[in-house]
Design brief:
This protein is an alpha+beta fold. It is built from six helices and three strands, in the order αββααβααα.
Length: about 110
Amino acid sequence: MPTIDKAALFAPRLPEEDHDIPDLGTVRIRSLSRAEVLAIRGKSLPVDEMERRLLSSALVSPRLTEAEVGQWQEASAAGELEPVTKAIMRLSGLEEASAKEAVARFPG
C-alpha cells in the first residue's frame, strides 16, 4: 500500500446525509471532525449546551448558530432533535464510544 500524501490527510473527508424531520422537511448533516469532538468531549457542559454545539457544528443545511439551535430547542417537541443528534453521532463513529462511556459512568 502506498504512503499517504500529506494533502490527502488534510483534505476534508466528513460523510454527509439528509435527515428527515417529520412534518417539517429535511436537514443536511455531516460527521463531526476529530477536532470538533475533542473540543466538546470531556467538558462539563449542560446537556442543552452540548446539543447546541453539536448541532451548530454538524448542520450543513440549514446552517445554524448555537443561538439559533437554542431557538429550535425552544420551539420543538421534546423528541424532535434527538434523532438528529443520534444520526450525527452515528456518522461521526461515536455511537459505540458513547455507549461505553455511559456504562463506565453508570455501571450496573
